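Class prep. Protein, please:
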Amino acid sequence: MRRSNKAHWRHASGFAVLCTTLAALAGCGASAGPTSAVQAASTQAATSPSTPAPTPTLTVPPTAVPTPLPTAVPTPLPTAVPTPAPTPPPTPSGPTLTAQQQRAADAARQYLSIDGFSRQGLIDQLSSSYGDGYSVPDATVAVDSLNEDWNVEAVKAAKNYLAMEPFSCNGLIQQLDSSYGDKFTVAQATYGAQHAGAC
């Protein structure tokens, strides 16, 4: 019995030593675990090919397309409408002369081409029984149709008088204005004497 107990103790002691050794080994393995993991990671990182860093993609903003300006359409100028020239009023023609009056007008022009006559003196000459013998109405229409400037006729008559004999300014005015003379108005006789050089 003693021999068997001793043998049993040896077996138990040997088992305990074995367990202690295994536990120590297990502890060393556990403590060395993290360091081994870091070393393994470092080794893997050193042996693994390096992955190139991704190239940043540049985003180019879209080019602003210029908006075309609206083309100015030229406004057509208004066409100038020619303004028609105002039609001048018809010039009143002289009175329609009868054949007698037309002949009296022709005779009056002949008298005026020879000497200076007043309106009244020319009518008297045409209607006188010692002259042309036209009626007073026909002689009047004929003389008025001539549209003469009687001031000019007064100057002509005054110059004719002065060519024949000398006259004073007042004497020539009276001669031109006299009812027995040329029968110009006082204003016409004065104009004639002054412009003939008598005054």
Notes: The CA atoms of residues 116 and 157 lie 4 Å apart.
